Amino acid sequence: MGCYSSSPRSLGEFMKMNITRWQPDTCKCIIEYEWDGDADPTTRTHSVVNTIPCEFHTKHSNHEEVFEDVKAENTRKNVVINELNKEVDWEYDDKRELKIDLSSLSEAEKIDARDKLSRHEKVKEWQKS
Fold first, then answer.
1. Are 16 and 10 in contact (CB under 8 A)?
2. At what angle do helices 121-128 and 63-84 cross, to 10 degrees?
3. Which of 48, 53, 104, 117 has the highest CB neighbour count under 10 A?
4. For 40-88, how does the pLDDT look when each residue is reduced to its tens digit (9 = 90+)?
């Protein structure tokens, strides 16, 4: 799991901003982003303050690009793992392709997993890109 810490900072009387330091479990990047602690969690936005990119994400020219790429990789992994609903090993390779190890599953579970993933809208979208 990623490492999370949050500390509030005040911007006057009306807005309390929090800064969170996040290290995802998909790479070794460290990302600091701020968000309004008083905003509705379903609609609030996160603004990148700083990033320390890992070796795979140094290609990006700014903090926002690092954050968006890391967030996309993390989302991809979470969608796949949640859809499988099984304990499986996974990793991103040097090309940043998600590799899922299904060897712990029975043949029937493997077929079911491939079928579920092939029908998932997000997975279809990623396969096109």
1. yes
2. 130
3. 53
4. 989 988 899 999 999 999 999 999 999 999 999 999 999 999 988 888 9
> How many beta carbons lie within 10 A of that of residue 14, not counting itself?
8
User: If you ran DSSP here, which 8-state letter would residue 81 be given?
Assistant: H
* Cα Dmax for the chain: 60
Sign for the CA dihedral angle at 109, 115, 120, 126 comes to: positive
Instruction: Give the separation between CA 16 and CA 12, rounded to whole angstroms.
Output: 8
* CA separation for the pair 23, 29 (Å, rounded): 6
Amino acid in position 21: R
Q: What is the pLDDT of residues 90-119, one digit of tens each?
A: 999 999 999 999 999 999 999 998 888 888
